[in-house]
Amino acid sequence: MPYLLLLPGMLWLIIFFILPLVNLAETSTKTRAASQETGEFIQTWRFANYLDAFKEYQPQFTRSFIYALLATLLALAIAYPLAYAIAFKSGKYKNILLILVIAPFFTSFLLRTIAWKQILGAEGPVVFVLRSLHLIGPDTTITATSFAVVMGMTYNFLPFMTLPIYASLDRIDPRLLEASGDLYSNGVTTFRKVTFPLSMPGVVAGTLLTFIPAAGDYVNAAILGNPTTKMIGNVIDSRFFRIVDYPTAAALSFTLMATILILVTIYIRRSGTDELV
Amino acid sequence: MVDMASSATGDLNLRNITKSFGDFVAVDDLTLTIPKGSFFALLGPSGCGKTTTLRMIAGLEEPTSGSISIGESDITHTKPYKRPVNTVFQNYALFPHLTIFENVAFGLRRRGQKDVKDAVEKVLSLVELGHLKDRKPGQLSGGQQQRIAVARAIVNRPALLLLDEPLGALDLKLRRQMQIELKWIQTEVGITFVHVTHDQEEAMTMADTIAVMNKGRIEQMGSPVELYENPETVFVANFLGQSNLIEGHVQSDSGAETSVDVHGSRILLPSSRNRGKEQKVLVGVRPEKINIHTSSTSAGKNALEGGVVTDISFVGVSTQYQVEMPWKQEIMVFEQNDGGAPNIRKGDRVTLTWEPHFTFALSPES
Asked: Residues of A with CB below 8 A from B153's CB?
């Protein structure tokens, strides 16, 4: 009975994913109880919760997707050459470089983000260098800006972008590149017509692994941002745990999930069917 | 650059080509001319330098010293994409993300040809796969991929087509069929084919000229018949088909005929077929040239007596005998199953005879 093997996984998913999701969906249409007691809500099937929440937090939604998009593009710009170098040019240092890519995972996500606060801080090396070069004024700071938030996200999700791209580049048969050269392509053309199209699965996987968590991220905005750089994750966090407004938080969570799902579906459809060459 | 690529035609000349990887000399002072329009095979065991030679012609490796030219133009240091040379790679190296049509059109498009449809369809019909043009390589069988790899190369009308063990991944029956097809395609398009293989039968079936390579050098070059009937070195004698090589000492040389003492028997051969330099030689004869007899009738022929049949195997078209000679050497004999084969059993004492003009003699050091 092969289905028996699915049982543990199915149970896990039902208990820790499906049930909470159903619970969240149910919470999202509740309204505050008449008693006005904190944390007490009754089911009224008020779907207008969604509209209200979206209207109120539309700027944070937009900001989340813009930051996530920027971080994804930046991470792609950094990760692709990195993955390319590791896959094709690193020789015997390949494993060491791969370990270096994964190394940040040995410390906590939170800790690394706080470290970025130091790096970008007023006394930190980045500000010092930029000030010395007169690229920024003596009073300009970098922390608590949207720039710092996007930088933090780019940094934090870089390995998720690098590894899938590396994996698909590493799989490319070097003879295909030789064949391309043999058929009158110079290095640039070979990259455009052979290497890049063949690395598309990695690029798609990497951008999704970066964009999805980045869109819902709140740690970077909380640590490296200011009140005007709040992302939707921060709103959900405060609605849930500070204001204790479960229905709005649940409605926002669902809206975020649905939006990501739609964007991702469109993206996969496009990158899958469009002829990329 | 494109003009140069398409205009260079003529014989391919390799002059004093050496390629070393660290201490290892893969190709050692190789000089070779491959005439325009010929089907040329570089034949040798793995590690003999044949693939390295091919890769240097393709521009995928640069020679340590020496020069490569096609006709008048020197291409020793020309980038691969600027050479009028195309390659059929060992595992075909078809682009998995492109359709068959786009795979074949790849080279034409890179050279800026706008209308590729006619040329691509023509070459696809030459390899009889026009109906598969919208498929991806992964949906094709090995034999079909092989033909597409050839089509993708010859559509560019290169001065030179390089084939790197092109049939290695195919099963025996398909390989035979593709051998005939490749030969036909070569005749049809008239492009110089340089074919690298370790399969002597493949080389003999297809090539006009074969260069047998060993340890980075060419042992012997010639037509398949020449190499088979008149091998000049021990390596060639053993690598192309089977040979019986027996130690002997040259007794006399009349200029036309050489007489060799082989373990007490007098073996004659035309002096022109004696490649030995000293008195001590290896006398060679191909197994199918030998006749096997139970009586000792040897008028006018070379004969070795006192053999004992140790093994007989029937392989359909012929019967193969293994005969142990008094000096403990096994001699192979192939007899055609044409009704004339004698009734011989294991353990029988036999005499082996053959015509003097089938005999060759080699230097034992070669």
From this structure: 182
- Nearest residue in chain B measured CA to CA from A276: B97
Q: Determine the Cα–Cα distance for residues B1 and B317; give it in Å rounded to an integer.
A: 55
Please give the C-alpha separations between residue A93 and each of A96, A102, A169, A236, in angstroms, as whole numbers. Answer: 5, 15, 16, 43
Picking from A175, A185, A197, the nearest residue to B81 by CB comes out as A185
Judging contacts by C-beta atoms under 8 Å, the chain B residues touching residue A277 are 97-98, 102
Q: Which residue of B has its CA nearest to A190?
A: B110
The predicted-structure confidence for A174-227, as pLDDT tens digits, reads as follows 999 999 999 999 999 999 999 999 999 999 999 999 999 999 999 999 999 998
In chain A, which among 134-193 make CB contacts under 8 A with chain B? 173, 175-176, 178-186, 189, 193
* Boundaries of every domain in chain B: 12-229, 242-362
CATH placement of domain B242-362 = 2.40.50.140
Decide which of 3.40.140.10, 3.40.50.300, 3.40.50.150, 3.40.1350.10 is the CATH code for B12-229. Answer: 3.40.50.300
Return the CATH number of the domain spanning residue range A48-276.
1.10.3720.10
Q: How much is the mean pLDDT over chain A?
A: 90
Query: In this predicted model, what pLDDT tens digit does every residue of B316-338 receive, in sequence order?
Result: 888 999 999 999 999 999 998 88
Q: Is the Cβ pair B152, A183 closer than 8 Å?
A: yes
Please give the angle made by the CA atoms of A169, A191 and B21, to the nearest 5 degrees: 75
